[in-house]
Amino acid sequence: STMEETDREAVATAVQRVAGMLQRPDQLDKVEQYRRREARKKASVEARLKVQTIQSQLDGVRTGLSQLHNALNDVKDIQQSLIDVNKDWRQSINTIENLKDVKDAVVQHSQLAAAVENLKNIFSVPEIVRETQDHIERGELLQAHRKLMDLECSRDNLMYEQYRMDSKNTHDMNLIHTYFGDMQKLSEELGKQLWMVVQRSLVTVRRDPTLLVSVIRIIEREEKIDRRMLDRKKQTGFIPPGRPKKWKEKMFNILERTVSTRIEGTQADTRESDKMWLVRHLEIIRKYVLDDLLVAKTLLDQCFPPHYDIFNRLLNMYHQALSTRMQELAAEDLEANEIVSLLTWVLNTYKSAEMMGNSELSPEVDVNSLDSLISQNVVDQLLSKYMSTLTSNIIGWLRKALETDKKDWIKETEPEADQDGYYQTTLPAIVFQMFEQNLQVAAQINEDLKTKVLLLCVQQMNSFLTRYKDEAQLYKEEHLKNRQYPQCYVQYMIAVINNCQTFKESIISLKRKYLKIEMEDTLSSSHTSMDATLDIIAKEGCSSLLDEVFMDLEPHLNELMTKKWLMGSNAVGTICVTVEDYFNDFAKIKKPYKKTMTIEAHRRVVVEYIRAIMLKRISFKNAEERKEGAERMIKEAEQFRFLFKKLAAGSGEDTEGLCDIIEAIAEVIKLTDPSLLYLEVSTLVSKYPDIRDDHIAALLTVRGDASRDMKQTIIETLDQGQSQANPNYVPIFKEITVPTLTVPKLLK
């Protein structure tokens, strides 16, 4: 800094001077003398400096005093001037009051100036009105609006001047208003043209976008004038008639009405004229809304200023209008399939890629932020109505299906066979096709409804099968009244039995297809119950078919063990042919049931044969007859064995043992040595432990050579015997009763 430099220079000078003084050694003695001399010099310099400082301070004080003196004089002058002004002002007050007339003249002058300025316009009002009208008719909307604005501006300025001059003078105001009366009509006329364009904006934007842009510009101008007028009203209290016009608000209202009308207007048909009216109506709505929104997004958006947010406003309008329409439809008395169509559309189609979820509408439309078209409450009401309608429909359909099937049972033509040649009727296919259709429909709505419908189907199926069982029973009873009718009884009974298997398979496949694994338990008891009913129907059906066989066999069974039989009747041959003939039809029975039928037929033939022996219709006279009878029995057992082996072919069923019983009985009859009779009989009893005493007595009676005592002894001794029956042996004798009274000779 400067101070430091000065210090450095001072030190340098001092060093130089001291060096000059002390050049010789003798000068060192005078150091004290030099120091005193320098001290005197320094003191005199400091004294001079002090005097100078005081001098400059005194100068400053002198200047300050002179300035204060001047200021005092100035204040006195100002005070005097103020007194003079005050005096003048008091004298001028009266003069100012006399200037009011001038002020009024100025106001009048400014009004007259405005009038003069507008005079040209005022005189040309009728002509401008005509020109504006022409522009409107030619569709030159911007030019028409420009003229209209000029007219309104003239009228508003005149009115404003009138208002400023005398706000209470309504007569003059009305005069102006009336003079410009046609202008109001013009404004309405132009408005109509604008609203027509707005109504058709989605069409116009494709054909003539400039027209739409012109309309928006006019609306924007009007909005600006509205704002200006409202601001002036705040300041002056004056607003011209017909303001604010609020044309922007009106435009949105018209768009809203247009959207509503567009959606309502898509219903072309009623249920009476077209069963599919609702599906068609909803599809047209979907198409229109999607098309409109795509046009709005790609074209309309560019014609409107950004602050109109036109696309989102339109989106909301469509959503609202759709919501209203869907609620109206939901309130109608809809049929089950119509409820499904409506719910599928509302819950799925609306937000799908076919509509609001269309990729071309994103990102502006976010389906996740769209509200539901109808409330959950309404959805629940519709679903509950659907379930109750569906329940009564299913009951009706099942009843009708069974009635139709029953009509087939009495036809004179055989039932159809499936691709494997098994007889069947169309009942299972019809029932399950109906279930499938309803499940597919329910699945369109949601998982929960699908499960409910499946449970309903199963529940109704359960009661239906009970009715089916009763009908099959009635069918059998009717047939027994007259066995000639119906002609194809056997074939239709086979079809009923086969249907049971088809029903079982269909239930399983339906569950597999439509029921989630975790829901299995909800159906297991119903499933078990249905299977049980089906087994009963099939079992009763099989049993009634065997009854048929044995009713036809009855005369031939009655011939067994008679004189005629012994003489060589062909009863067993006929029995075998008849059974085989029936089993040609029974081949059309499905596997599990057919196998049971074969076993049961085999068993019943053997039972009937043994029953014929126990009826004691013959008593052999001698060993010769016994031998002949026994050999015939063995031969016939072989015939049965051959027949049932043939019928059971491929089923792997071993029923050899049944015919062995006949052979074992034949051995007892054939025996020539009566002393061995006890042994032979005891062997028979140990093999077949359900043989009763009366069976043995009957057998010995047929042999014809055992006395009463002998029978008694054999029977009493047998009671102590041990059985050694085959564990697979199914008791057969317990079904056979022995007549106690002597049987009248049936055949002479």
Automatic annotation (TrEMBL):
It comes from the Eukaryota. Keywords: Acetylation, Cell projection, Cytoplasm, Exocytosis, Golgi apparatus, Protein transport, Transport. One of its GO terms (biological process) is protein transport. GO terms for cellular component: exocyst; Golgi apparatus; growth cone; membrane; midbody; perinuclear region of cytoplasm. Pfam families: Sec6. Its main location: other. It is found in: Cell projection, Growth cone; Cytoplasm, Perinuclear region; Golgi apparatus; Midbody. One of its GO terms (molecular function) is SNARE binding. Component of the exocyst complex involved in the docking of exocytic vesicles with fusion sites on the plasma membrane. Belongs to the SEC6 family. The exocyst complex is composed of EXOC1, EXOC2, EXOC3, EXOC4, EXOC5, EXOC6, EXOC7 and EXOC8. Interacts with EXOC3L1. Interacts with BIRC6/bruce. Interacts with MYRIP. Interacts with SLC6A9. This is Exocyst complex component 3. It comes from Caloenas nicobarica.
